[in-house]
Design brief:
CATH superfamily of the largest domain: FAD/NAD(P)-binding domain
Distance between the termini: 14 Å
Strand content: 15-25%
CATH class of the largest domain: Alpha Beta
Structural class: alpha/beta
Helix content: 10-25%
Number of helices: 9
Shape: globular
Oligomer: single chain
Number of domains: 2
Largest sheet: 7 strands, mixed
Number of strands: 25
Radius of gyration: 24 Å
């Protein structure tokens, strides 16, 4: 099977690139191992809602137009939004096709799947940043009577037994799941490491609206001092609702806070003593952001009708947080790892991965000719991994891809016709039919 471009993944990023390529008459196919928006269908918990308000949900040529612009999409609504977009742009998606390997082949790439083999001149990796859950090595030392569960595997509290739960990680996922499980009547202990604290609303506006107004969401990679660190920062403590979910809200509901999980030994979890420092640092960074908003308002006094500022309450930390937890004595039945994810590139047999298996790229331009990536954290901009971040990234990378195809056309006799429906294989060259 032949195509100018093979896109791997039919999530919002892959579909946005498909729309761009169709608009420019480029022959392409989108390969998806499951259904459109598969990770939303199969790898998310039931109660999940987007952390961004509906008015911010947009893709090239399509945006939310419902009756609740300030609400937050539920999981079925996200799936429907992406599904509708696939139909709207008539994306040439082949579902139920798992990519087994990608390797170099003459002037392009060979994509082997469990259905057909494809040959292409350009490859777009849009398989997402959440392929594999990051589970620390200490998980192997859990007692046998404790269930180990990742955020990708968790669906609902009812699937857990009635014993306590240790949630490891206090970013967006960790605080949401800790809250949901505590509300179900199970006692939750939350292991807190580095985290980003944000209010849902400030001075009467959603925090995401402020971040867009101040240009934070559009911040580019060339405006960041330490890009590696920024890309590894945890997601902010937000929930898809008109309320703030932070550590204070959790402790009010009975969640116990402990420090970062350091070790598991002899049936006990051992925690660091850094809880107070981690919380103080998160409070300080939040105040810097809010002060930045206040300064912007002082410089633009007639721009927005806003409420008076309210100073946030400092995170309440126990005087002497526990440093150890005995799984048997405290009746802990589950450890839930909310410790982030990383992409799965086990199928990518190209010299584009570093020693730790991370994709080598500059703003989505991969270190192999004609290979591009989409949807990665802070890939080109701070918003790159969000649904609304696809539009700008796809436009810029799409033109890079078109330029690469044009350069290949110059080297071919006769040159490729954009929009050709197939190739004839002749020696080491691809020519249009």
């Amino acid at each position: 099977m032949l195509a100018d471009v093979v896109i791997i993944g039919a999530g919002h990023s892959g579909l946005a690139m498909s729309a761009f390529l169709s608009q420019h008459g480029v022959d392409h196919v989108v390969l998806e191992r499951g259904q459109v928006a598969n990770s939303w269908r199969r790898e998310r918990w039931d109660s999940l809602r987007l952390l961004t308000p509906n008015w911010l949900s947009r893709l090239p040529g399509h945006r939310y137009d419902g009756e609740d612009p300030h609400g937050f999409m539920s999981l079925p609504e996200v799936i429907a939004f992406i599904d509708h977009y696939a139909r709207l742009v008539a994306a040439p998606v082949r579902t139920g096709v798992t990519v087994m390997s990608v390797s170099e082949r003459d002037d392009g790439y060979q994509v082997i799947t469990d259905a057909d083999d494809w040959f292409c001149r350009c490859l777009v990796i849009a398989s997402g940043a959440f392929g594999i859950a990051n589970v620390p090595p200490v998980a192997a030392r859990l007692p046998p009577f404790v269930r180990s569960l990742t955020a990708r595997e968790y669906r609902r509290p009812q699937d857990l037994d009635d014993r306590g739960v240790l949630v490891v990680g206090a970013s967006a996922t960790g605080v949401q799941l800790a809250d949901e499980i505590q509300r179900s009547g199970r006692q939750v202990t939350l292991a807190v490491g580095e985290h980003i604290r944000l209010p849902r609303r400030y001075r009467g506006r959603d925090i995401q609206a402020w971040m867009e107004t101040l240009g934070i969401l559009d911040q580019r990679i060339d405006n960041v001092d330490d890009l590696v660190r920024v890309r590894r920062l945890p997601s902010p403590q937000l929930i898809g609702a008109q309320s703030t979910l932070d550590l204070n809200a959790l402790t009010t509901r009975g969640v116990e806070l402990v420090g970062r999980l350091q070790e598991i030994r002899d049936g006990r979890a051992l925690f660091s003593g850094s809880l107070r420092n981690q919380c103080a640092m998160a409070d300080l960074k939040q105040q810097r952001l809010l002060s930045g908003i206040d300064r912007w308002l002082a410089e633009h006094p007639y721009s927005l009708d806003v409420q008076d500022a309210e100073a946030p309450v400092a995170t309440r930390v126990p005087e002497r947080p526990r440093l150890a937890l005995d799984f048997a004595r405290e009746r802990i039945g589950t450890v839930l790892w909310a410790t982030g994810f990383r992409p799965d590139y086990s199928w990518l047999h190209l010299p584009v991965l570093d020693a730790k298996g991370r994709l080598q790229h500059e703003g989505g331009i991969v270190s192999a000719p004609g290979v591009y990536a989409l949807g990665l954290n802070f890939m080109r901009r701070r918003k790159s991994s969000f649904i609304h971040g696809a539009e700008d990234d796809v436009r810029e990378l799409g033109y890079e891809l078109l330029a690469h195809l044009d350069a290949l056309d110059v080297c071919e006799e006769p040159p490729r016709r954009r929009g050709a429906t197939g190739w004839n294989r002749m020696g080491a060259s691809f020519v249009s039919t």
